[in-house]
Amino acid sequence: xxxxxxxxxxxxxxxxxxxxxxxxxxxxxxxxxxxxxxxxxxxxxxxxxxxxxxxxxxxxxxxxxxxxxxxxxxxxxxxxxxxxxxxxxxxxxxxxxxxxxxxxxxxxxxxxxxxxxxxxxxxxxxxxxxxxxxxxxxxxxxxxxxxxxxxxxxxxxxxxxxxxxxxxxxxxxxxxxxxxxxxxxxxxxxxxxxxxxxxxxxxxxxxxxxxxxxxxxxxxxxxxxxxxxxxxxxxxxxxxxxxxxxxxxxxxxxxxxxxxxxxxxxxxxxxxxxxxxxxxxxxxxxxxxxxxxxxxxxxxxxxxxxxxxxxxxxxxxxxxxxxxxxxxxxxxxxxxxxxxxxxxxxxxxxxxxxxxxxxxxxxxxxxxxxxxxxxxxxxxxxxxxxxxxxxxxxxxxxxxxxxxxxxxxxxxxxxxxxxxxxxxxxxxxxxxxxxxxxxxxxxxxxxxxxxxxxxxxxxxxxxxxxxxxxxxxxxxxxxxxxxxxxxxxxxxxxxxxxxxxxxxxxxxxxxxxxxxxxxxxxxxxxxxxxxxxxxxxxxxxxxxxxxxxxxxxxxxxxxxxxxxxxxxxxxxxxxxxxxxxxxxxxxxxxxxxxxxxxxxxxxxxxxxxxxxxxxxxxxxxxxxxxxxxxxxxxxxxx
Length: 638
Known about the structure:
CATH superfamily of the largest domain: HUPs
Radius of gyration: 25 Å
Strand content: 5-15%
Strand order of the largest sheet: 2-3-1-9-8-10
Shape: globular
Helix content: 40-55%
CATH class of the largest domain: Alpha Beta
Structural class: alpha+beta
Largest sheet: 6 strands, antiparallel
CATH architecture of the largest domain: 3-Layer(aba) Sandwich
CATH topology of the largest domain: Rossmann fold
């Protein structure tokens, strides 16, 4: 796991020494991603600079040092990530005459390019990667990102230089780095709490899309082509028609292989454990393939409704892991907030970034690598919105549109304060949390169709163009009619969209930045691309059955952990931002919300702030979006 940065200079006016200086300055912004060493390689004649910061995981010797050159001298590469099947590929290359200096996966990838070609090699790889490659012979530059977008890479073409880096902050030091804010991308941010790829907060800087190869040749022409896509997986899938036991047994075998491959490291490793299905399954499969107790880590909170540590502890005791837990005080959690703009150098507002950082920080005190259970919900039907859509969707949307519109109007006819009084007739023990908010969300759903239902659930600010001054929100994947034709089933369509948007731009971004901020490598076995492909061959009932999601994963997990240790209502990985904004964060938030940066119209923000303070509505997510943007703006733009 590492950080990469560099540039191509088209002008021919930059000396080798200046190339080296600029590359090093850019790369050194990423020391947190690679504290174990760093170096740069330059080709002054062709204007190429490649920089690397190393977090040593496999082959800790100098033989694993980057930038690295292929044995034949043709390719030079810097690379961020891990490839878990390198040892499977090594013998073939040895037979072709490659004499390996060490046992790093970097060396396998690089010499694979020589003997198999670039795209053919990439398609052989199992893992996570962002690769920058210079081909001396053809004078071509390549930028490559893994299939699911686990590892990030940003790029910009200034007209004079091509810049790239693992994070935005790596591009900023270059004097020609674009500076203008992309207000359209900011509009997307306040809808989604993150900025969907390929956009960034800066006009002229892009994220390379997952599963793509960017190529620039000596003439300056550029192409970006996919080498893998989830759309192709869905189009070519064949739903399995075998006994359920056979399908689930094969899934277990595949998951065990995905986990075992990610247990390869020359440094200590462990696993995040929340006590939920996904993290418990990863820990169970790790322990089943280890001859000693694995290390597991969880954090807890004193606030009721936010603490999963006791559940994680019970799972750890059953599995026999070497478990470490940290109970975090509200003060410790709040102390992280001022640092978030440093860790997330692009606006990012999923408040679970706080506990994700805290558990990463605690874990890094003990190990250098941690396996995470991310991805299970998207692939195997775990989110509540999937269960709700399957249970109520068909009957709800079968109602005549005029009737649904009337019901929506009636809900909205009463103000929040009136609904607060009405729902008091329901006993507190039986009253759903945030019931008024859910009623208004239902009103929005009733007005549209099943795709509108999904959009409403993944939307914070529903009319971002009216909030962000001078913005026109780009319509992304969730608006494309082609998705409905590709996947007729509404629940599967939500899973598909979540995998390509929410998982990539929110979940994986959150985990990458939080873990790398403390120099911890996070590995995600449940989104091994082979597992992703297999999940799309499962019949529906092995994802959701009897109103219960992740049916196949549960079946496997219960072979290792008693069901009663797992069965409980789904709990988000978060902190009580709603209460904090009315209490200890109130003054800080009020000052930051109304920052004079000329980005937002303050009227809608003021309305939500007032309603939140009165307890009429819970606008924590909407307000957190603005707070995190303004914190980012203060850090990086003033």
